[in-house]
Amino acid sequence: MGMERDGRIPSFLPLHHIHGIINIASCALWSGATIEPFSRFDAQRSSTACAPRLHDLHAVPTIYVKLIQTLEAVSPADRATSSADLRKCG
Known about the structure:
By secondary structure, this protein is mainly α. The protein has 4 helices and 2 strands, in the order E-H-E-H-H-H.
């Protein structure tokens, strides 16, 4: 779905971060999508926070590394569920 009028974009980054301003806030506002801000990034909760209501995950490399580390630390069944949820975020 991505940056479309009915999209809901999670934002784990502070809005003063250039990636948060340009790639999340500006693009979402331009397309009419809704930004769903999170007060902070939590790797364990974030893998399921996106699906099914949020679309198009944008982050910085540090966040992606933390997500990978979290997925590697859980059971194969939990990893499969979390991976499927993250795929729904685009």
